[in-house]
Design a protein that fits this description.
Layout lengths: L1 H76 L6 H21 L32 H31 L7 H29 L7
Helix pairs in contact: 1-2, 1-3, 1-4, 2-3, 3-4
Length: 210
C-alpha cells in the first residue's frame, strides 16, 4: 500500500508539474491572442473613423463651395459690387480643398474620375426626385466627379457675371448662372446620398440624410 501510495503521489506530482508547465506556456499565448484581437479591433475602429472623416470632409468642402457661389449670386442680384480678384482667390482655395478631399477618398476605395461636365464626358445629373444611383462605391465616385465638374462649371458662369457687372452695373444675373447652381445642388444631393450609403456601411447603422 505504501508503494502504491507513493506511486500515486509521484504520478500526481508529475501531473501537477505538467499542468503547471502547460499553463506557463499556454497562459501567455492566450493572453497574447486576446491582446492581438483587442489591438485588431481598435485598429479597425480607427480605420472606420478615418474613412468616415474623409467622407464627411468631402461633404463639408462641397457645401462651402456651393455656399460661396450662392452668396456671390445674391450680391449680384442685390446689385452689390463683387471684386473679381477676391472672387478668384476664394474660388481657388475652395476648389483646392474640395479636390483634395475628393482625392483623399481614394483611401476609401472611391477613385475620382478625371472627367468633366458635358460636353467633356460626365452625363447630366438627374433632377431632384428622379432615380438616384445606389450601386455603392461606383455611384459615389461618379457622383463625386459630377459634383466637382458642376462646381467648376458654375464657378465659370458666376465669374462671367462678375465680369459683366464691371461693364454693366445694372445687368441682371443670367439664367445660365441660376441653372448652373441648380445643377450643383442636384449633384450635391446625389453625392450626399452615395456618401451616406458609404458611411452606413462603415458604421453599420443608419444616418439621417441632410
Amino acid at each position: 500500500m505504501t508503494d502504491t501510495g507513493a506511486l500515486y503521489g509521484l504520478l500526481g506530482a508529475l501531473g501537477g508539474a505538467a499542468a503547471a508547465g502547460l499553463a506557463a506556456v499556454y497562459g501567455p499565448l492566450r493572453l497574447h491572442r486576446r491582446q492581438a484581437e483587442q489591438k485588431a479591433k481598435e485598429e479597425k475602429a480607427r480605420q472606420s473613423e478615418r474613412e468616415t472623416a474623409r467622407l464627411l470632409k468631402m461633404r463639408t468642402t462641397g457645401r462651402a463651395w456651393i455656399d460661396a457661389l450662392e452668396r456671390v449670386v445674391q450680391d449680384l442680384q442685390a446689385h452689390h459690387s463683387v471684386e473679381v480678384d477676391r472672387f478668384d482667390e476664394i474660388m481657388v482655395q475652395l476648389s483646392r480643398e474640395a479636390t483634395e478631399a475628393g482625392h483623399a477618398l481614394a483611401h476609401n476605395g472611391l477613385w475620382l474620375e478625371s472627367q468633366d461636365t458635358p460636353p467633356h464626358g460626365i452625363p447630366q445629373v438627374p433632377a431632384p426626385g428622379e432615380a438616384r444611383l445606389h450601386d455603392g462605391g461606383g455611384s459615389a465616385f461618379i457622383a463625386l466627379s459630377q459634383l466637382l465638374g458642376r462646381l467648376r462649371e458654375a464657378t465659370r458662369e458666376v465669374r462671367a457675371d462678375v465680369l459683366r457687372r464691371l461693364l454693366q452695373r445694372e445687368s441682371p444675373v443670367r439664367s445660365e448662372v441660376l441653372e448652373a447652381l441648380e445643377q450643383v445642388r442636384a449633384a450635391r444631393a446625389q453625392l450626399n446620398a452615395a456618401l451616406l450609403d458609404q458611411i452606413e456601411q462603415i458604421i453599420g447603422g443608419h444616418t439621417h440624410r441632410l
